[in-house]
Amino acid sequence: MHNNFRYRQFQIGVASQATGVSAKTITNWLDRGLIVGGENIIGVGGPGHRRLFSFGNIIEIGIGGAIIDAGAGSAADALKAANRFAHVGWDAGEVNPERAVGLPFAERDGTTYIVVAGGNSAILPANPHLDVAEASRRLGDADGFITVNASAVFERVTASLQYITGDNAFHPLAIYEAAYSGNRG
C-alpha cells in the first residue's frame, strides 16, 4: 500500500495538538509570514473558514516550536531553520548523507540535529566525526548556538498525528520506510 502521508491536510486544531504549539501562536506565525507556504495554506482563517495545513507545515511548526523552546532569539530565526528542515531536502553540495524533505536522515545515518545561531542553521546527522567545531563552522564560525534533536521532534509529532488521525501511515517507522525504502545502505 502506498503511504500518502505527504498529501494529507490538517486543521489548525490537529496542527496544534500534534506539535504542542498553540493555535494562537500558529495563527500569529501565519499572520507574520513565518510559515513557508502560508499563502498556500487552504482557507483564509476566520469564522467559517478553516485553514488546512500540509504535512510539511506540521513538521515545520513542530520543529520551530522546539527551536524556540531551546532558546532561539526570535520566532523568525526559529521558523527560518524549521522552514529549511521541513521544505528542503538534501543539497548535492552537502557532505551529509541524503535526507528526504521534511524528514530526519535515514535511521542508519543516526540521529538528526538542527543547530541554530541567529538566522543561520545547519541540519546534521550525529556521527563519530560530528563535533562542536564542525557545527560552528557550518554556522559561519558562530560563537555559540542551540541544538535541537530533530529526530526526536519528528517522531513525537508524527506519533501524535498517528494517534490523532488513527492512521498508521503516520507511524514514524512507516514514514521512514516510505521515504527511504529504496535507499537502503
List key phrases describing it.
185 residues; alpha+beta; single chain; three-stranded antiparallel beta sheet; two-stranded antiparallel sheet
Task: Give a structural overview.
By secondary structure, the protein is α+β, with helices and mostly antiparallel strands. The protein has one domain. Helices cover 42% and strands 12% of the residues. The chain has seven helices and five strands; from the N terminus they run E-H-H-E-H-H-E-E-H-E-H-H. The strands form two sheets. It has a three-stranded antiparallel sheet with strand order 4-3-5. A hairpin with a 2-residue loop joins strand 3 and strand 4. Helix 1 crosses helix 6, helix 3 runs antiparallel to helix 4 and helix 3 packs across helix 6. The protein is globular. It starts with 8 loop residues before the first strand and ends in a 5-residue tail after the last helix.
Tell me the series of helices and strands, N- to C-terminal.
EHHEHHEEHEHH
> What is the terminal-to-terminal distance?
23 Å
Count of individual helical segments: 7
Rg on CA atoms, Å: 16 Å
Shape: globular
Question: Taking strands numbered 1, 2, ... along the chain, how are they ordered across the largest sheet?
Answer: 4-3-5
Indicate the structural class.
alpha+beta
Give a count of the beta strands, DSSP E runs of length 2 or more: 5
- How can the largest sheet be summarized? 3 strands, antiparallel
Q: Give the low-confidence spans.
A: none
| Strand residue content | 5-15%
- Kindly give the count of domains: 1
The helix fraction, in percent, is: 40-55%
Mean pLDDT: 83
